[in-house]
Design a protein that fits this description.
By secondary structure, this protein is α+β, with helices and mostly antiparallel strands.
């Protein structure tokens, strides 16, 4: 689990990132979770945007993505979810 200080640090790092995934009408599926898991291994910190036509609640989407990809849910702000997972091969971020 992340501490408040670590979440603040990650939010500041994620601020300038652009979302690289979108959750739309199809909602959360295995393929999306697999791709997000792979992206997290490379980048550690990603943003996912939730489109207007997504029928699921954004909190449910955030929880489903973080559980499926075994990542930490850093933040849900507006229709954007920030996810973090420490990389095994490719460590870039040093948490405080």
């Amino acid at each position: 689990m992340l501490t408040g200080k670590q979440k603040r640090f990650l939010r500041s790092k994620a601020h300038h990132l652009n979302p690289i995934f979108q959750v739309g009408k199809g909602g959360v599926n295995d393929n999306l979770i697999k791709q997000i898991g792979e992206a997290l291994e490379v980048r550690e910190l990603i943003k996912v945007s939730i489109l207007q036509n997504c029928e699921e609640d954004r909190n449910d989407v955030g929880l489903a993505l973080s559980k499926g990809a075994r990542a930490e849910l850093v933040q849900i702000i507006g229709n954007t979810i920030v996810l973090y997972k420490e990389s095994k091969e490719n460590k870039q971020l040093k948490l405080p």
